[in-house]
Structure formats: structure tokens, C-alpha cells
Write a structure and sequence with these properties.
Layout: H1 3-68, H2 74-89, H3 91-104, H4 108-127, H5 133-161
Helix pairs in contact: 1-2, 2-3, 3-4, 4-5
């Protein structure tokens, strides 16, 4: 075997060994990430079950209070407090609620959020082989209304300043 052939063979073996070691490291990292994700999901599932239990208790208390008639709605206060605590402590819940608030917002931001939803709906329609026409029109309408509101706000600001 010549020196060049031996060197080439050695390089191929070294590359295969390095590839194998890298694949092992990547596999270990992926397995660790999966384990962490599973642990996080298990924790969130326990939190959700706990919250479901609390909501059930609060619902029962509200029904009992409603049937007894009158009095201060302590159950409602507890329900709102629990919801607020969940909003403050769980980033996923906070993102979902903030997203819903954006969609309800009557300003340009709400129009843009609803336009984004309509675009997602159009993409979904295309993926399902349906016509995206209605969703595209809805998105265009929301963008147009958002633009109109933005122009109106700018005009109002300019009029106030002059």
C-alpha cells in the first residue's frame, strides 16, 4: 500500500470515527432535550389538573352561592384571583391571553392580528385543497380597516399638534 493510499484510508477512518462520535453526541443531546421536555410537560399537566380541580371547586361554590341567593361573590373573586395568578406565573397562558386581547382590540393592532389569522386560514384552505378566496378577502379587509384607522389616528394627531 502506498503512502497516499494509507493516508487516504486513515483519513476516511478518522472521518467515520468523528462522524460516529458526533452522531452519538447529537443523539445524547436530543435524548436529554426530550427528557427535559417530557418533564416540563408532566409538570404542566399536573398544574393543569390542579387548576381544573380548583375550577371545579370554585364552580361548585358559585353554584351553591347562586342557589342560596345573594351575598358577596367570594367564589368569583377566588376564580378571578386564580386566573390572574395563572396569567402571571405561566408564560404560555399569558401569551394565549395576550393574543386573544390583541384580536379583540378595536384598534389597528387588532385588525392586523385578525388579518394574520385570516392569512393562516387561507394557507390552511390551500393545504386542504379548498379555495382561499374568502380568507384572502377577509385578510385584505382587515388590513384595509387597520390602515384606515391608522391614517385617521395620524390625522387626529396632526390636527391636535397644529
Amino acid at each position: 500500500m502506498t503512502t497516499a493510499t494509507r493516508t487516504t484510508t486513515d483519513l476516511k477512518q478518522a472521518a467515520q470515527k468523528a462522524r460516529h462520535e458526533m452522531e452519538e453526541q447529537v443523539s445524547k443531546a436530543v435524548m436529554k432535550q426530550h427528557a427535559e421536555m417530557a418533564a416540563a410537560l408532566t409538570k404542566q399537566q399536573k398544574e393543569v389538573q390542579s387548576l381544573q380541580g380548583e375550577v371545579s371547586l370554585l364552580t361548585a361554590a358559585l353554584k351553591k352561592q347562586k342557589s342560596s341567593g345573594g351575598g358577596f361573590p367570594w367564589g368569583l373573586v377566588l376564580l378571578v384571583g386564580g386566573g390572574y395568578a395563572l396569567y402571571r406565573s405561566n408564560p404560555t397562558v399569558k401569551e394565549q391571553i395576550d393574543g386573544l386581547i390583541k384580536r379583540v382590540n378595536p384598534g389597528p393592532e387588532g385588525n392586523l392580528a385578525r388579518a394574520g389569522d385570516a392569512v393562516k386560514s387561507a394557507a390552511s384552505d390551500v393545504m386542504q385543497g379548498q379555495s382561499p378566496g374568502a380568507s384572502v378577502r377577509a385578510a385584505g379587509g382587515e388590513v384595509q380597516r387597520g390602515g384606515e384607522k391608522l391614517v385617521a389616528e395620524i390625522k387626529d394627531d396632526l390636527q391636535r399638534k397644529s
